[in-house]
Amino acid sequence: METKGDIRAVEGLLVAADSPAGRAAAAINDLTMHLPTPAEPGVCPTCVGRFWPCRYFDDAAYRVHTARLRVGDVVPLGLHPRLWPPATPPGPSPGEEHDHG
């Protein structure tokens, strides 16, 4: 995705109104409106003084999800770690033997 300065590039897309994406169009637009700029990935550009993801983004993401669409498909890949950080660091599998040398 190409960016120009502090503005994230967007694409216009036509979809059938009665498709899952068409029914979730307002939620997708709301979600996109609250995406952070590339220069400040931790700040919502729409909600003054709020960190990202803000509650408006979270609400729009919930609506996208309940429309049975994947939120990750409309959020830039570089932001995925901020949305889904690893729950716990990977460790040994249960029953895995360790070599104590």
Characterise the protein shown here:
With 101 residues, the chain is mainly alpha-helical. It contains 4 helices and 2 strands. A hairpin with a 2-residue loop joins strand 1 and strand 2 (7-8). Helix 2 runs antiparallel to helix 3 (55-66). It is globular, with a radius of gyration of 18 Å.
N-to-C SSE series? EEHHHH
Provide mean pLDDT, rounded: 84
Number of strands: 2
First CA to last CA: what distance? Answer: 48 Å
Characterize the overall form: globular
Radius of gyration: 18 Å
Biggest beta sheet summary: 2 strands, antiparallel
Output the structural class.
mainly alpha
What share of the residues lie within helices?
25-40%
Q: Within the largest sheet, what's the order of strands?
A: 1-2
The percentage of residues in β strands lies in under 5%
**Spans of at least 5 consecutive residues with low confidence:** none
Q: Please, how many helices?
A: 4
Would you kindly provide a brief summary of this structure?
The longest helix has 12 residues, at 55-66. A hairpin with a 2-residue loop joins strand 1 (3-4) and strand 2.
Topology diagram in text:
Blueprint: E1 3-4, E2 7-8, H1 20-23, H2 25-33, H3 55-66, H4 80-83
Antiparallel strand pairs: 1-2
Helix pairs in contact: 2-3
Keywords:
101 residues, mainly alpha, two-stranded antiparallel sheet, 4 helices, 2 strands, 29% helix, 4% strand, globular
